[in-house]
Amino acid sequence: MYAISPVNILKVSLEVFEEKSDLVVVEEPLEIRLGYGSMDNRQQRSVSVTMRTPTHDFELAMGFLYSEGIITSYSQAMSVKYCVDAGKQATENIVRVELKPEISVNLQLLQRNFYATSSCGVCGKASMEAIDNMICHLTKQKPEQNTLRISRDYIFNLPKILAQYQKVFEYTGGLHAAALFDAEGKIILLREDIGRHNALDKIIGNALMQDLLPLHNKILLMSSRASFELIQKAIMANISVIVTMGAPSSLAIQTAEQFGITLIGFLRNKTFNIYTGKDRILLENNFF
């Protein structure tokens, strides 16, 4: 499966109408299924259906399960693979994660209403209860203490570095990016997806599978706005600095403040806003 698809378009301008070929980002559903229980009594649950760009699906599945608190390590999984639903679904649109028999599953987390869509909309009583439950779950996390400090010029330089690596966006202009940087400003990992939460789940899933967690000494850059669920996922991965190119929501700011996260928004044209955690940003002695 591919992240880019060709289409034919009619390009309209003041001077001319022109038929030409173009490239668009692919959007397809991914169902994440969980297998668990003893070997003589295996259970299966569908835990999420998300609209995603079909790349790095195993990372997406593992990152989702970790950031939602269903698993705590990659070693808890016996296998991660694509499966076919009696030939009714595309082979690579269903990922099944099989947990080891001794791993217990929190059924309350499985039963709550996951709000995973490319638009990230949250509505309805069940979803509001899910947010309350997740905040209660997050308060049990113990963030790693760190002395991470970065300069103003470091932050200004992030979009330029991101643009060099964001290849799918270069061709389509239609998706979000999540990128991890180290304290020296080197990009470590980048993932793109039509859903901003999916892009971050792919980052977290990769870090989980590569045994890189926690990420308390890394900086997260998102090409999107900052919503509550992005902050929630960052907390689970122990990310302490989040930089976004768009606006944060009130709940994102509130949650970042509560958990000691530095949250930066509206990074563009050599300006940005610091909403929480300003002590991590060196404004006087700028060095990269």
What report would you give on this structure?
The protein is of the alpha/beta class and about 290 residues long. It folds into two domains: about 30-140, Ubiquitin-like (UB roll), CATH 3.10.20; about 150-280, Cytidine Deaminase, domain 2, CATH 3.40.140.10. It is built from eight helices and 14 strands. The strands form four sheets. Strands 9-8-10-11-12-13 form a six-stranded mixed β-sheet, with helices on both faces. Strand 10, helix 7 (about 230-235) and strand 11 form a beta-alpha-beta unit. Helix 1 packs across helix 6 and helix 7 runs parallel beside helix 8 (about 250-260).
Write the layout of secondary structure elements.
Blueprint: E1 4-12, E2 17-25, E3 28-36, E4 43-52, H1 57-67, E5 77-82, E6 94-99, H2 107-111, H3 125-138, E7 150-151, H4 152-165, H5 167-172, E8 176-181, E9 187-193, H6 196-209, E10 219-222, H7 228-236, E11 241-244, H8 250-258, E12 262-268, E13 271-276, E14 281-282
Parallel strand pairs: 3-6, 7-14, 10-11, 11-12
Antiparallel strand pairs: 1-2, 3-4, 5-6, 8-9, 8-10, 12-13
Helix pairs in contact: 1-6, 6-7, 7-8
The amount of beta strand, in percent, is 25-35%
Average pLDDT metric: 85
Identify the strand order in the major beta sheet: 9-8-10-11-12-13
Structural class: alpha/beta
CATH second-level architecture of the largest domain = 3-Layer(aba) Sandwich
Shape: flat
